Amino acid sequence: MDAPPCPAFPDLDWTAITHSLDAHGNAIVPGLLTPAQCDDFANRYDEPDRYRSRIVMARHGFGRGEYKYFSYPLPPLLHELRTALYPRLAPIANRWNRQLGIAVQYPDDHAAFLQRCHNAGQCRPTPLILQYGPGDYNCLHQDLYGEHVFPLQVAILLSRPGHDFTGGEFVMQETSSREQRIDVLPLQQGDALIFTVNLRPVPGVRGWRKTAMRHGVSALHTGRRHTLGLIFHDAQ
What Pfam family is a match for this entry (predicted)? Predict the structure, then answer.
């Protein structure tokens, strides 16, 4: 049985989330999921009927470890998360595109955006769960998957740092024509990280400039680490 649905996020501080996304390209949301919800997802990692495919990272040069893409219909909690978070993130994504001079604008409703993806042949679900063991890591990358890309995504840590695993920090790289920066973002069990998929606007002397973002996970030292990934566009 799936974990009970999460609330409709009435207590999230969207002013602070928006400010952090604009300033850093990421925002930590503490305790988005409960420990019970986290454990439910992690404990069901080996149930094959929940997933459409399994990817072993080393086979593709992605790092070490593995991940699985959920199949449709998504578990109710995952569906609720995508449906509830998307309309709060779409105005940020639309503003970023205007600042970057990108003509694409996103509909208010996630179902309408998914229909846009499906009309273009992007029909495969992208929410995923990742599993790392000792020595595993994830190379810096971007989750693009096709022509239609939503600029923000969410990672939720399911495991307990210092108890279930050590090492395995979430890492983001920011690269522009002027500089490069690395951020290491500490998460606790149930924390969500909202972050940039590809490009974000950064104010410059002559207006907005494009900054490219990549994300990854440093090497795990001990234990096992599970993470949920919420991507709002579907894949070809």
Answer: Oxygenase-NA
For 100, phi then psi, to 5°, come to: -85, -5
The torsion angles phi and psi of 197, rounded to 5 degrees, stand at: -75, -45
Over residues 53-85, the pLDDT tens digits come to 999 999 999 999 999 999 999 999 999 999 999
Could you tell me the residue ranges of all domains in the chain? 14-230
Instruction: Answer yes or no: CATH 2.60.120.620 is held by domain 14-230.
Output: yes
User: Tokens for 131?
Assistant: 């599993």
Q: Under 8 Å CB-to-CB from 165, ≥6 apart: which residues?
A: 132, 159, 220, 221, 222, 223, 224, 225
The Cα 233–Cα 236 span in angstroms is 10
CA quadruple 220, 40, 38, 128: dihedral positive or negative?
Answer: positive
Asked if residues 189 and 35 have their Cβ atoms less than 8 Å apart, the reply is: yes
Distance CA 110, CA 61 (A): 32
pLDDT tens-digit series, residues 186-207: 999 999 999 999 999 999 888 8
pTM beyond 0.90: yes
205 token code pair: 């002397």
Contact 71, 125 (CB under 8 A): yes
